[in-house]
Amino acid sequence: MNKKIAILKRKKAIRNLITLLAVITSALLQTFVIQSMIRPANMLSSGFTGVAILIDKIAALYGGSISTSIAIIMLNVPVALLCYKSISARFTFFSCIQFACTSLFLQVMNFQPMFHDIVLNVIFGGFLYGIGTTLALKGNASTGGTDFIALFVSNRLGKSIWSYVFLFNAAILCIFGSMFGWIYAGYSIIFQFISTKTIDAFHHRYERVTLEILTSDAESVVDTYVDHFRHGITCVQGYGGFSHKKIYILHTVVSTYEVADIIELLKQTDERIIVNVMRTEQFFGNFYQKPFE
């Protein structure tokens, strides 16, 4: 028993370390994009970071100054407090580390412009900013702000709403455009579009697939599956045309991020198992969506 507890603690520590490295790398990458691509091109980033930059720009019009770093903290903390019970205390904690690191890095680091061409800043900046957000999401955290809201709603609906986040960012950019020039707002919207599509391309938490599993030991495979995953599974008896032996065909619908773990587990039960993974375009009925850890 003590050995099992020690193994669980070690796994938890490793998982926490991976998440910490992911959020710090994410914050560092976002700081780099803001300082070397967004600011030189006079653009606006997405989410609450973009709102913080916009607040500072508006204050500058009236001779004032509001630190972007402080504004990031002030905007994110209330949303974090509202969402941590509905999402996850651990998820919220590491997300807070991410935006706190971003705030700190913006104060202490000074990345120089990489490109002197606004189009290159838009394309590479949008892609890298999206990668920064994806890193945090892959590490089971987020960049805070609108990510909290997007993930809260997505977990309730069981589908991605990043397109709606893009619309929110576009609305903020319209305010930016009306005050500071539409050409920069236009470039910023393209930047946001590239960033959003990058997240969609690499973050597949809400995509579903159907697993078609062929095995001769259905009872053991089903028992193993049900013990470890909270999805339904259907078993149909079939006949192997080549082997002329009885075979069982199992069907289940799962999230894409679960596939590797499921296949690895089932192969331990039946090493000769065959699994066909098929994309599920639409699914109607109850579906268990694993909460954030």
Automatic annotation (TrEMBL):
Subcellular location per the Swiss-Prot or TrEMBL entry: Cell membrane
GO cellular component: plasma membrane
TM annotation in the entry: 60-84, 91-112, 118-137, 161-185
Lineage: superkingdom: Bacteria
Pfam family, one: DUF2179
Membrane topology: Multi-pass membrane protein
Keyword annotations: Cell membrane, Membrane, Transmembrane, Transmembrane helix
Start and end residues of each DUF2179 domain: 231-285
Family annotation (PANTHER family): UPF0750 MEMBRANE PROTEIN YITT, UPF0750 MEMBRANE PROTEIN YITT-RELATED
Protein name per the record: Uncharacterized membrane-anchored protein YitT (DUF2179 family)
UniProt source species: Longicatena caecimuris
